[in-house]
Specification:
- By secondary structure, the chain is α+β, with helices and mostly antiparallel strands.
- The protein has one domain (about 5-130): Zincin-like, CATH 3.30.2010.20.
- The protein has helices at about 5-15, 40-45, 85-95, 95-110, 115-130, and strands at about 30-35, 55-60, 75-80.
- A 3-stranded mixed sheet has the order 1-3-2.
- The mean pLDDT is about 90.
- This is Metallopeptidase family protein.
Length: about 130
Amino acid sequence: MTREEFEKAVEQEFPNAVPKKFRPLIKNCAFLVENEPGTEVREREGLGAGETLLGYYHGIPHTARGDTYGVGMTLPDSITLYQLPIEEAAHQDGISVEQVIRETIWHEVAHHFGFDEHQVREREERRDAL
């Protein structure tokens, strides 16, 4: 998949990943696409040689934004989707790249809304059990 095709898939899957009622709450957050996690992210997350990420949220979670958030210069949060690991995961799991993109967006947006990794995984398990 070309980068352009992948970015288009991210754009198309966003509405499928995030329920309509939550979309207006996502503010000051950029969605990015990179090939793989860089050295800084790998070190920050303590990834070993054979480990990777499908996505990464960086910023101030919605729940931690106080009354002064956005006053003055405020850099946007970012949600980065990593194309090569997502394509590899789709291939290994026998599912579409679009499905992995959708799941990754859902996961990272949950972090944006203040859920830690344990809480996100619990919610994914409950959602998948339905």
